[in-house]
Amino acid sequence: MKNLFYKVIAGLLFVFVLSCSKDENNAPFLKRDTDQLSFPYGESRETFTVRTSGSWSIDLSGANWVSVDPIEGVGNGEDIQVVTVTASRNIGDMRNGAIKIISSDKEALINIDQEEGKVMFGTPYFTTGLVSNFPLEESYLVIPYNKGKLEEAVSVRTQISGVGSAGIQIADTDVDMSSESGEVKLPVTGMPTTDGTVTFNIQILGQTLTVNTAVREQGNSDPVGTIYLLQNFDLLILGGDHVGGTAGLHLEGSWPTVDGKRVLPENPVYITSGTRNTDGTGDLFNTMHPSFVASRGLEGWAGLRVYERPGYVKVSTAGSNDGYIATPPLTAITGWADVKVKFTAARWSENTNADADATVTVRVLNAGTSDEAGQEILLTPAWADKEIIVEGATAQTVIEFRARNASNGRFLLDNIEISKVIR
Length: 423
Prior knowledge:
Layout: H1 2-25, E1 30-32, E2 36-39, E3 44-59, E4 66-69, E5 72-76, E6 81-87, E7 95-103, E8 107-114, E9 120-121, E10 125-126, E11 139-146, E12 154-161, E13 168-169, E14 173-175, E15 181-190, E16 196-204, E17 207-215, E18 227-231, E19 248-251, E20 257-258, E21 261-262, E22 270-273, H2 290-295, E23 302-304, E24 306-309, E25 312-315, E26 324-326, E27 337-347, E28 359-365, E29 376-378, E30 384-393, E31 398-403, E32 411-421
Parallel strand pairs: 2-8
Antiparallel strand pairs: 1-3, 3-5, 3-6, 3-7, 4-6, 7-8, 9-11, 10-11, 11-15, 12-14, 12-16, 13-15, 16-17, 18-32, 19-22, 20-21, 23-26, 24-25, 25-32, 26-31, 27-30, 27-32, 28-29, 28-31
C-alpha cells in the first residue's frame, strides 16, 4: 500500500515537471544578434537578425534617420529573419539613435550611431574681378567642397552687403553636389557702381560661408586660372617612397664632388636599396651641386634639409626644427594678382607617437598677404590636398613651406600650383 502511494506521488510529480517544461519551451522569446550598429556619414546599409516565437515589429521613433526592411514579421521560434537598416546621408554632427524591436510581450533595443558628415567647404573665389562700372558677364563665385555625394539638390541663399555691394546680385538657387568633391558655381550678375568692400554671406546646408572682397581695379589682365608656378617634382627619381611604403632607387657607389658639392657620375648606375625611409640624396640645397639641383627642375628654389624622394621632396629631419623649401620669386606675375597656392602634403610616419604632430606652415615673403599664412596645417600619413589664398602677390612674392619649430617635424611635399584667382 505504501509503495502504491509513492508511485502515485512520483507519477504526479513527473506530470507536473513535464507540464512546466512544455510551458517553458512554449514561452514567448525575442532575440537579436547585436545591440549596436555604426554607420559612416554617407548613405549605407547594415543588417541584424531577429529570432522570435510570434509576431514582431520595429519602432523607429528613436531613429528617424534610418529605414528598415522588413519593418515587421512573424517568427516560428527556429528560423532567423534578416533586417536591413539603411542610414540616410548625414550632413550634420555625429548622431545617435535606437531601433526598438517589439514582440507580444518583450522589447529589445539596438543602439545606432553615424559619424559626423558636414560637407567641408574650401576657400571661395571669384572667376572675374569686381570692377566699378564694368558689367559682370560670365562671372562666378566658386566654392570648392569635399564630402558631397548628396542625392538631392542643395538650396543656396546669398546676402550681399558693404559699401561696394551696389549693383551686384547673386540669385537664390539650387545646386548639384552629387560628386564626392567638386565646386559650387554661383553666377554673379549686375554691374558694380561703387568702389569699396563687399561681404557675401552664403547660406548652404546649415552653414554660413562669409566671403570678404572689394570692388577695385585689378592688378593685371591675366585670366583667372593663369598658372604662375607649377612644380610636380617629376624629375626627382631617387629615394624610398615613404608614403607608398617601398624601397627606391639609389646611386650605386659614392657620389663624385665638384667644388665640394655632390654631382652625378658621367654614367650613373642605379640600384634598388634601402627602405621607404631612405633619402635619395643629401640636402638638395646644401650638399648637392647647383647643376644637379637645376637638373631636377629646382633652379632658383631655396631650402634647408630638403631631400629627394621619387616624385616629391622630404623636408626636415628627426632632430632639426628649421627645415623648409621656398619657391623662386613669382616673376610670371605682372602688376599684382590674388593667387591660390595649392599643394599636396603628408607627414612622416616612422614612429606613431613621435611623428604625430608634424605640420607644414606656409609663409608669404616679400609681397602679398594671406589670412591663412603662418598657421600650422595639420597633416596625416596619407597624401592630402591643401590650399591657401594670397592677396596682392607680385613678381617679388616667394612662397615658403616650413616644418614646425620642433623635432620630429618631417613632412613630404608634392604638386605645388600657384594660379590666379579673384578674392
